[in-house]
Amino acid sequence: MDTTTVPRTARPSPRALTLLAVGATALALTAAAATPLNPAPRQARADGQRTLTVAVSQSVDSLSPFLAQRLVSTTVHRLIYENLTNYDAKDNHAIPGLATKWEPSPDKLTWTYTIRENSTWSDGKQATAEDAAWTFNTMMTDEGAATANGSFVANFKKVTAPSPTKLVIELKKPQATMAALDVPILPRHEWEKVGDYARFNNDKKFPIVGNGPFILTDYKVDQYVKFKPNQKFWRGAPKFDELVLKYYKDGDAAVAALQKGEVSFASNLTPAQAASLAKAKNIKVNDAPGRRFYALATNPGARSKDGKKFGDGHPALLNPKVRQALFAATDRKTIIDKVFQGHAVEGQGYIPPRFSAYHWKPDADQRIAYDPARAAALLDEAGYKKNKAGKRVGKDGRPLDFRILCHATDPNDKAIGKYMQEWWGELGIGLKVDCLDNVSDPWLAGEYDLAFDGWSVNPDPDFVLSIHTCAALPSTPKDTGATDNFICDKKFDELYAQQTAEYDQAKRADLVKQMQSRLYDTGYMNVMAYPNAVEAYRTDQIRAITTMPESGGNLWGQDGYWSWWSAVPAEVDDTSGGSGSSTGLVIGIVTTVVLAAGLVVFVATRRRSTAEDRE
Amino acid sequence: MTVPSTAAQTASSLAWARRRGSVARFWRAYRTHRAGLFGLGALAVIALVALAAPLLVGSDVQSVTNAPGAALESPSGAFPLGTDQFGRSLLGLLIWGARISLTVGLMAAALSVAIGTLVGILAGHFGGWFSTVTMRITDWFLVMPTLVLAIVLATVMSRSVWTVILAIGVTSWPTTARLVRAQTLAVESRPYIERATALGGGHGHIMSRHVLPNVMPLVLAQTTLGISNAILTEATLAFLGLGDPDVVSWGGMLQDAREAGAVSSGHWWYLAPPGIAIAAVALAFTLCGRAVESVLNPKLGVSTR
């Protein structure tokens, strides 16, 4: 099942055998993929339980909403807790969550939320304004609790709950994100007892007390996360009897499991997988505009709030011309065509076009188009001329040799790295692609020149913009800040403060666009592409499911619980033999014949060789 | 002045004649092993292809920007083994990959056997507490799962071909060390060693002039067998993404195939050729190694044919 860990099962002694197995595994996998060992979907179980199994690969960083930042973890939190507000599946506008109503005071500094009366925690207690007030107050007073979502409460002055259904938030300055606070509200009676919020991962006691559409019943690191539907959920209980996020660290294994019917859903498909699944019976491939951007980040010189510099970013990258030249020598169209094979949209501004209100495009004279000649000219201007060996060297004698941090788990990083090596190599720039399983350590330490970077963007852009402000820098070099890439730009910060305080939607959108323009010009975050969400599900297990946005949207990692909450199980039919069975059969027969022939030859030679010894 | 010189000449020419004779004898004995000849032939072909790779496919076969085909094309006249996800010819990559797989295999095996021989001879010659200590270290390496150790080494060091060679070399020497030590003990118990010592031969002289030549056959056979192991380990490390990402190797091709999703989408032509190539080369080296072993080691008895 877990094919990436083949060697971990290796016993020390029959080493040669284990090693041979690697070559054989690859072959065996092909056969396994094509051979439905288990043609009838296993999803229909004897007890009539209908389980929705979702293949995931990203590890959970923490089950505590105070700490969790990864997509898989925040997705889990959306399923088991409620935020004050939710986003509409159709067009992302704010709709009631735990709060039914919210309104600002005339001076824009006090927001009053009405908390619903029909939401109960899974242990039977009522969810009240008191819980919400406690959650926000904890984040405001405890630094550990502010790790993940601190940016939402940084501007809060006071949060009170005058009555169980009334929550009052007083602000220091107006804040535009008050209807988009992506903060899960926690049950106070369970969480008060926790001592250190910076260390508590919420993974000791199951089921976890929550009030979302699902209840988390079990979790094993990198194996599974299991949920039961919350029958008392105010919007209506989910229709499946169980939801399981099952770990497949290998994309091919996940797809094989989908083909066999072991899982109902798999995401992050490669173009080849999407193409082959599109032809498969009972499987629907969903190729939707993604909510991610995929960028080339350049290290602007890592520093902390106390002004200390750290890390070892290449000094040449502090020159804006060098950054521009690097981006001008990056052919985004080829990346879309060759690496993503059409499953992505060429990058423009910071926020993907899916969020049309905030999406920004550079105009013709601002845009850094693919133009190697211009890139060479820019580098010459910046003082990095080619030497006799064809390498560009600065006045200090240091050649333009960069390192790029790449996620070993993301094949796209590696593939684009290969292209960059060739494009930039022609310009005389060296590039070393550092593919690591854990990029966080060098990243947080500022020990990188360039990095492949990407974030999922929420309908409200505040958070993804906040990670590039000076306020997000770590307090000291030893701390971890919310910052993404150590960017600290005065003009960007000013615009950020303005947009946060702007309640007029159109004006705020305009400010957000100005911020993106500024970010584009600084060249620290160069968006190369907006990858599509390429995912597939079994139509013989899931009859209907809500995408977000409803027309042509994605399923995994939505800004809400719509997909899994809405999924309708298909009536079980066991007529599916799978179109792959004939090829599987052929491969099976061929393998058997080959093995049998090998055995015969082996036995024959053995007999001949021992002929003299036998009586 | 002239007399010793001619004497030396005759001595050396005698030595050469003896060596020629033993090589001829070796070859006559080797020739009787059909499997060994088969392996040797296969190796010759593969080595020739690897050496001629720049002429056969050109060095720009690795280039992604000048890739001639579309992504993951199935085998055709233009691309006999199809293309990879960048549109590069898989046949070209396979041929190019042979260079890395063979180089790493040979060098890692040589390194491993060199370490093993050194440790084995020293431990066997000096004996006593020195032998005990070195053999305990050897045992420690012997019981360590080689692959795990190699993965750790390849992870902490920078990604390059040399790292892989080193990782394989320093993890796979204990077997050789044990074999060589046993052989050294056997050789040193012979009377002529005692005579050499009596005539004033020092430790260095005994080890290099008397023990080493006598353990050489064993070492040679061990090297040949070690290469196939080294090639498989290299492929494993590359498959696990621990190889140098900038070079094409067979294990790396398998890893690329996996990343492109070739397994689940049924693009067998991406997976099968590197897998078969690894198996074929490992098999060829093993066949040669077994033949060499049975020729050089009389204890293994006369072969069946």
From TrEMBL, chain A:
Localization, UniProt: Cell envelope
Keyword rRNA-binding applies: no
Pfam family, one: SBP_bac_5
Domain Solute-binding protein family: 95-466
Keyword presence, Chaperone: no
Database matches in InterPro entries: Peptide/Ni-bd, SBP_5, SBP_5_dom
Transmembrane segments: 585-605
Leader peptide range in chain numbering: 1-33
CDD domains xref list: PBP2_NikA_DppA_OppA_like
Coiled coil: none
Keywords per UniProt: Membrane, Signal, Transmembrane, Transmembrane helix, Transport
Family: Belongs to the bacterial solute-binding protein 5 family.
Protein name as it appears in the record: ABC transporter substrate-binding protein
Species this chain originates from: Streptomyces chryseus
Lineage: Bacteria, Bacillati, Actinomycetota, Actinomycetes, Kitasatosporales
UniProtKB/TrEMBL annotation, chain B:
Transmembrane segments: 35-57, 100-125, 137-156, 268-292
Compartments in which it is found: Cell membrane; Membrane
Gene3D superfamilies named among the record's database cross-references: MetI-like (1.10.3720.10)
Keywords for this protein: Membrane, Transmembrane, Transmembrane helix, Transport
Superkingdom as given in the UniProt entry: Bacteria
Residue ranges occupied by any ABC transmembrane type-1 domain in the UniProt entry: 98-289
Membrane topology of this protein: Multi-pass membrane protein
PANTHER family named among the record's database cross-references: OPPC IN A BINDING PROTEIN-DEPENDENT TRANSPORT SYSTEM
UniProt family annotation: Belongs to the binding-protein-dependent transport system permease family.
Entry protein name: ABC transporter permease
Native organism taxonomy: Bacteria, Bacillati, Actinomycetota, Actinomycetes, Kitasatosporales
